[in-house]
Every structure is written in structure tokens, then in C-alpha cells.
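The protein record passed on below.

***
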Amino acid sequence: MIRRLVERSGIAAISVALLAGLALPAGAAADLENDYPTEARADYVFGCMAANGQTRESLQRCSCSLDALASILPYDKYVQASTILSMRQGVGQRANEFKSTKVFDDKIADLKRAQAEAEIRCFRG
């Protein structure tokens, strides 16, 4: 809608950008940033739907869950925690190193808190 108004009125792009920035509440611009790549988003939603059913409602809830997760946990922290979880499933000394390190426990705890918040927002609301 804003685009149509801009095209019709001939307002310069810089003016529109300034107006859009002023219209957003503090912190809302950060919400517009999307540091989760599309492939990671699709992978998350497919996995979520596999666990929760292949329905339209499941698609909506899983998409919501990912959006909530992304708003809480930056993508690089998500990747770190996911990698640690994957490495912990292994066997041997390397897997044990990932299982017994406090720093890794903290990264996984951050992911689990974000996932719990996302579940509350999208699956129980």
C-alpha cells in the first residue's frame, strides 16, 4: 500500500525511507532483519511439520515457531547449538568433549529456552 502511494505521489525514495524509519517504534527495525537463510527456515519448518503433522495448521504454527525463535536467538547461535547437539549424538572421545563442556551446555540451554518460548507463542496460544 505504501508503495502504491509513493508511486502515485512521486515522493523520493530517501524521503520514504526516512518516513518509514520514523513510523517504526524503537527496535522494530531490528525485527525486520532476517539473518536466518531461507534454506535453514525451510529445513526447520519441514522438520517441525514432520513432528506435528502435515496440515495447513501445522505449517502456520511451525512458521510462527521459527519466526519466534529467530526473534530470540540470532542465526549464528542457532547454528552453534544445533551443531553441538548433532556432535553429542556421536560416539567416542570427540562426542564426549561436546557432552561434558559447560560452554556447550550454555549454548544448548539458550536454544532450548528460545524453542520453549516459541512453542508457548505458537502452539499453546
